[in-house]
Q: What sequence folds into this?
């Protein structure tokens, strides 16, 4: 049973470009969460999605950031017009349909903005 | 506003001894607490959790204690092993109607020495 998969593992973008981060949840999991870890900090919640629905986006920056979890395919975190401050590790986690709060994390995508 | 705090950024313990990692929280709505372990360049790995209706949960070498009145929890690892060297994150959530997002502390780097 494969775990949570994220790609790419490393992503380098120049300021002003777009970054697309992908997350495939564990098999049977329908809940996806995105977290961001800035250097020397803990993980910060960004958004919680179920298939085709955004449930909680209270941690998402108001501009340039968006997320989706379509009926088919992986969840996508999209960052438009990246700035240096977006450089961080972005982690995706998934959990099963029954709410139990044990979220299983992927290996993360390390975004570097030049 | 840091709702989950891990005041010790690092801890060094000898192999075979007990490791005690501490975590404090401020939000009285939190009713579910988790500990994650993280190695460099990997995603967090779930270790153990505890509901607010309990004050102790044990799983092998890992025990979590919860003191609700003090808004404090701790993770005990005994005996400590070199493979336990990692960053440990405390996390909390509001299980009922809280949207399932995890609020993380800033982590404690544990080093288990031979």
A:
């Amino acid at each position: 049973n494969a775990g949570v998969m994220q790609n790419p593992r490393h992503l380098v973008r120049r300021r002003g470009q777009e970054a697309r981060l992908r997350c495939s949840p564990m098999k049977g999991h329908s809940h996806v969460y995105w977290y961001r870890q800035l250097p020397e900090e803990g993980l910060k919640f960004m958004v919680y999605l179920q298939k085709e629905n955004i449930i909680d986006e209270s941690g998402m920056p108001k501009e340039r950031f968006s997320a989706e979890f379509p009926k088919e395919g992986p969840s996508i975190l999209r960052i438009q017009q990246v700035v240096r401050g977006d450089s961080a590790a972005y982690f995706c986690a998934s959990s099963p349909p029954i709410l139990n709060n044990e979220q299983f994390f992927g290996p993360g995508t390390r975004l570097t903005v030049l | 506003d840091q709702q989950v705090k891990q005041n010790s950024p690092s801890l060094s313990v000898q192999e075979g001894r007990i490791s005690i990692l501490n975590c404090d929280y401020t939000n009285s709505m939190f009713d579910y607490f988790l500990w994650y372990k993280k190695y460099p360049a990997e995603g967090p790995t779930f270790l153990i959790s505890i509901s607010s209706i309990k004050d102790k949960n044990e799983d092998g070498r890992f025990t979590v204690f919860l003191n609700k009145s003090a808004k404090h929890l701790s993770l005990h690892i005994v005996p400590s092993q070199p493979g336990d060297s990692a960053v440990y994150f405390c996390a909390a959530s509001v299980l009922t109607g809280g949207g399932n997002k995890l609020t993380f502390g800033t982590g404690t780097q544990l080093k288990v020495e031979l």
User: Anything to note?
Assistant: Chain A touches chain B through 29 residues (CB under 8 Å). Residues 52 and 65 of chain A are 17 Å apart (CA to CA).
